[in-house]
Design brief:
Elements (H helix, E strand, L loop, with lengths): L2 H100 L6 H13 L2
């Protein structure tokens, strides 16, 4: 064997040893990091599922809140209309009460008030 052949053989052997070392290193690294990667992947899946659930809940909550706001506005409008109707209905009674207060009568105030009330009621 010549020196060149010995050198080539040594280089091939060194290459094989380097390749074997790299393969062994990759296998050991995969054995060490694979459980960590699997756990991280599981955590990611759980987090994505939780996020999707929270998004659905937020959408539902927003819809319900919108419904509550609309219901409140409707109640406010109905209450304002009821106030206006009651005010309109009370105008005649309010005017009658003001007339009772403004009329001056002599004598006993209770008898005068009774007479005025009876007069207003048509008794």
């Amino acid at each position: 064997m010549s020196a060149v052949q010995k050198l080539l053989g040594a280089l091939v052997l060194a290459g094989l040893l380097i390749a074997a070392g790299a393969g062994l290193g990759a296998w050991l690294a995969a054995g060490h990091y694979r459980p960590l990667l699997d756990a991280a992947q599981d955590d990611l899946a759980t987090t994505k599922a939780g996020r999707a659930n929270l998004e659905a809940l937020v959408v539902e909550q927003g819809r319900k809140l919108g419904d509550l706001v609309l219901a409140g506005q409707e109640r406010e409008q109905r209450a304002a209309q009821a106030q206006a109707d009651a005010r309109e209905l009370a105008k005649t009674d309010y005017a009658a009460a003001n007339r009772l207060l403004q009329e001056r009568t002599g004598g006993d105030q209770c008898a005068a008030a009774t007479a005025i009330i009876d007069q207003e009621l048509g008794l």
